[in-house]
Design brief:
By secondary structure, this protein is mainly beta. The protein contains 3 helices and 19 strands.
Length: 285
């Protein structure tokens, strides 16, 4: 970056993002610039970078009737990502606070298509900048591909769940504690998906209640993953042969999220979004 760059820092259940406001598509972001922004020692730091840009100025292929705002989401290593469920909530909070959107219900465009936003609550005057947001995440697709994941000396069966991006969900056996897993390195999938996958490891906590940890593509272990939470709820409901309409609660290291389903089978993700700081990145010499 050769010019000062304004940014906002936000998180959803401690899955954190650098947010760049670029309504007219004037920023040139490449993988190296994104990775530098997300660097926790030499940059601002974050699991990913979100550029808020009007779809018509985003330089992407999108239908003529696509929503006005595009969430240009990049992983912390600079790679493109189709979707980010925590990022969508933070993106929605930014759009409202920046005055780009006044409504509490609105659609946005992502690389996975349209996602619908419902802002359930906004910050009150004098309160921290915390929103509560429900996101229509689209319909899930799942299959048993015969894939397995190896963790802590165990080879576990995986359910592949597509939430606009790929997930490999595995449930831990009794006696293997979620908190004790070493996720400093990515667990091995067999066979490896062609485009990689986010890996979710799940422990039961009670009725309609599970906990998970996640190793994300292009990032490593994160404190939360919104699409991963949705994928885990889908896998949990299928595993339990759940047919009632109650939501599932999913605990992550960074907090708690709720997953329910719309009348048409769309997965609905509900949780907090917090904007914590605004700043200016100085140009590098």
């Amino acid at each position: 970056m050769t010019e000062p760059l304004r940014f906002t820092k936000g998180h959803g259940t401690e899955n954190d993002f650098v947010i760049l406001d670029d309504p007219d598509g004037e920023l040139a972001l490449d993988a190296a610039a994104v990775a530098a922004l997300a660097d926790r020692r030499a940059g601002i730091g974050g699991d990913g970078v979100i550029r808020a840009v009007r779809t018509r100025h985003a330089g992407i292929d999108a239908p003529a009737d696509a929503p006005e705002w595009f969430m240009d989401y990049r992983n912390g290593d600079g790679s493109l990502a189709e979707m980010c469920g925590n990022g969508v909530r933070v993106f929605a909070a930014h759009l409202q606070r920046a005055g780009h959107v006044q409504e509490d219900s609105f659609p946005i465009w992502t690389r996975a298509g349209v996602r619908t936003i419902e802002v359930l609550s906004r910050p009150a005057a004098g309160d921290p900048a915390v929103w509560r947001v429900r996101v229509g995440m689209g319909r899930s697709r799942s299959e048993r591909s015969g894939r397995t994941v190896e963790i802590a000396g165990h080879r576990l069966d995986v359910l592949d769940v597509d939430m606009g991006n790929p997930h490999a969900v595995a449930f831990l056996p009794a006696g293997l504690a979620l908190e004790d897993l070493d996720l400093t390195r990515r667990p091995a999938l067999d066979p490896e998906p062609a485009d990689g996958a986010n890996i979710e490891l799940v422990a039961e906590r009670g009725d309609h209640h599970v906990a998970m940890r996640v190793h994300e593509r292009g990032v490593g272990e994160t404190r939360s993953c919104g699409t991963g939470v949705a994928a885990v709820a889908v896998a949990s409901a299928l595993r339990a042969r759940d047919t009632d309409a109650r939501p599932w609660i999913v605990d992550v290291p960074g907090g708690r999220l709720e997953v329910s389903w719309g009348a048409d089978g769309e997965v609905l993700l509900t949780g907090a979004a917090e904007l914590v700081a605004d700043g200016t990145l100085l140009p590098r010499p």
